[in-house]
Design a protein that fits this description.
By secondary structure, the chain is an alpha/beta fold. It contains three helices and eight strands; from the N terminus they run βαββββαβββα.
């Protein structure tokens, strides 16, 4: 059986820059350490999940792949205001229930206030899943 996600690793060009962006946007902790193999690591906690930011010179195109976080509906306008005032690109859904934004390495994050989880749980229950 699977448990909760232990962490998510993202390859970024500048871990300190990405960590600072996420820290300032969400007012979350950032930790730095050197692991047992001597690798410098940067971690940011988003929600209940730690994100390991791994430095490498990799260029990626933006795709539809994304990481979505459940948020209260009133969170979306406040984060959109922070992004806008800092000059960062974002997309607000027409319904206003989702906000998509991008880090410096084209990772896509979604803030979702829809009832999709409840809908899927109901569908799974009726399907016997």
């Amino acid at each position: 059986m699977l448990g909760p996600i232990a962490h998510i690793a993202l390859i970024v060009q500048d871990p300190a820059r990405t960590a600072g962006f996420l820290r300032d946007l969400f007012e979350v902790p950032v930790l730095r350490r050197t692991d047992a193999d001597g690798h410098d690591e940067t971690f940011v906690r988003l929600g209940v999940t730690w994100f390991a930011l791994i430095g490498a010179d990799v260029r990626r195109e933006r795709t539809g792949d994304h990481i979505a976080f459940r948020v209260a509906r009133e969170t979306i306008p406040s984060i959109a205001d922070k992004l806008k005032s800092s000059g960062y690109e974002f997309i607000l859904s027409e319904s206003g229930t989702s906000l998509y934004f991008f880090d410096f390495d084209n990772h896509v994050f979604e803030l979702d206030s829809s009832d999709q989880e409840q809908e899927l749980n109901g569908l799974a229950a009726s399907s016997g899943v």
